[in-house]
TrEMBL record:
Gene3D superfamilies: 2.40.50.100, Nucleic acid-binding proteins, P-loop containing nucleotide triphosphate hydrolases. GO terms for molecular function: ABC-type transporter activity; ATP binding; ATP hydrolysis activity. PANTHER family: MALTODEXTRIN IMPORT ATP-BINDING PROTEIN MSMX, TREHALOSE IMPORT ATP-BINDING PROTEIN SUGC. GO terms for biological process: carbohydrate transport. Belongs to the ABC transporter superfamily. It is a peripheral membrane protein. This is Glycerol-3-phosphate ABC transporter ATP-binding protein. Keywords: ATP-binding, Cell inner membrane, Cell membrane, Membrane, Nucleotide-binding, Translocase, Transport. Residues 5-236 form the ABC transporter domain. Coiled coil: none annotated. It comes from the Bacteria. The lineage of its organism: Bacteria, Pseudomonadati, Pseudomonadota, Alphaproteobacteria, Hyphomicrobiales.
Length: 356
């Protein structure tokens, strides 16, 4: 299958100045699960609303399944949406809630009931059909809201932070459920979140946005392994990637390309007990703080750069359970093969450094 949804140069201006979405290009394949990820205010909801037709597009084009969408009414776009604040009708049973969108379209009683049974089976709502929303758990309500959105067999499923009202355990559970449901149905899905774990675990590809612009599009692992710029590098991953100015690093270990301005290394890529002359940057550090997480710990380190320069702060993830102590001295090694390089504009430089 080729592209199913195609956005070309899609922009949204509110008033004359503020550009909430800036020239977004995105092609989505049929059946794909795309996560839109980015900080608050970066334009995720606005982009989704433009796709749904709830917000006119200021510039650019939107094509779905070969049809230009700009002038189509939201009702005629065959798109289902679930928002963070999905509203179920409190006075209606689950069954009536599910059937409502079909009733609005004048679909007969029998056909509605049949479809509601199918959707209830799919989402395991069968035993809840006669209950009202007040008698459901948060996760069950969320499933009903999704079920209602799916009743019409939409071409595209749009979700805007559908899990953000749920507690951490339920979110994890629903994350797996939604991903599983999406795969079973094979429905093309755009899923907005600012939770990177949701985006990384659920999506075939993630779209990272900042300030209205797309920063990178790719499979989660690729975005993690090869972030396109400093924004993506520090936005994806927790704790975030360490970023150093190249001029602050000891020059003797290897010669950096002259266009390198920043050097990054992820906390989990730092190696302890460095010894001998290995390619990369070695530091003697002092442990300033230890955060114990159970399976591993986060070490906050201060490294002296030698020549009387200010110390570098480094965050490292230590996997083994040998406790590090605050005040302890440690040798660390940033392997050349795990180092990320960025130029003056913050763009990734390829190829990475070669081992000598
Ligand atoms: N109706 C509007 N009028 C003017 N500005 C708006 C309007 N809707 C959104 N904006 C602005 O557009 C930008 C993008 O907003 P949007 O809601 O798309 O962000 P978001 O990425 O969904 O953020 P969040 O993660 O907080 O939901 C913000 O600066 C916001 O203030
Ligand atoms: Mg939003």
């Amino acid at each position: 299958m080729g592209e199913f949804v195609r956005l070309h140069g899609v922009s949204k201006r509110f008033g004359n100045i503020h550009t909430a979405v800036n020239s977004v290009d995105l092609c989505v394949k049929k059946g794909e699960f795309i996560a839109l990820l980015g900080p608050s205010g970066c334009g995720k909801t606005t982009l989704l609303r433009m796709i749904a037709g709830l917000e006119p597009i200021s510039a650019g084009s939107l094509v779905i399944d070969g049809e230009a969408m700009q002038d189509k009414h939201p009702r005629d776009r065959d798109i289902a949406m679930v928002f963070q604040n999905y509203a179920l009708y409190p006075h209606m049973t689950v069954r009536a809630n599910l059937e409502y969108p079909l009733k609005l379209r004048g679909i007969g009683r029998e056909a509605r009931a049949k479809r509601a049974d199918e959707i209830a089976a799919l989402l395991e709502l069968g035993t809840l059909l006669e209950r009202k929303p007040a008698a459901l758990s948060g996760g069950q309500r969320q499933r009903v809201a999704m079920g209602r959105a799916l009743m019409r067999n939409p071409k595209i499923f749009l979700m805007d932070e559908p899990l953000s009202n749920l507690d951490a355990r339920l979110r994890m559970h629903m994350r797996v459920e939604i991903a599983g449901l999406q795969r079973r149905l094979g429905i093309t899905t755009l899923y907005v979140t600012h939770d990177q774990i949701e985006a990384m675990t659920m999506a075939d590809r993630v779209v990272i946005m900042n300030a209205g612009r797309v920063q990178q599009i790719g499979p989660p692992q690729e975005v993690y392994d090869r972030p396109a710029n400093l924004f993506v590098a520090t936005f994806i991953g927790a704790p975030p990637m360490n970023v150093f100015r190249a001029v602050d690093l000891p020059a003797s270990v290897c010669s950096l390309r002259p266009d390198v301005v920043h050097v990054g290394v992820r906390p989990e890529d730092i190696v302890f007990d460095a010894e001998g002359d290995r390619p990369g940057f070695q530091f003697d550090c002092t442990v300033s703080l230890v955060e114990t997480l159970g399976a591993d710990s986060i070490l906050h380190l201060r490294a002296s750069t030698g020549h009387g320069e200010p110390e570098l702060s480094i965050i490292a993830r230590k996997r083994d359970n040998a406790r590090a102590l605050e005040g302890q001295r440690l040798g660390i090694w940033l392997p050349l093969s795990r180092i990320h390089l960025f130029d003056q504009s913050g763009s990734r430089i390829e190829p990475a450094l070669q081992e000598p």
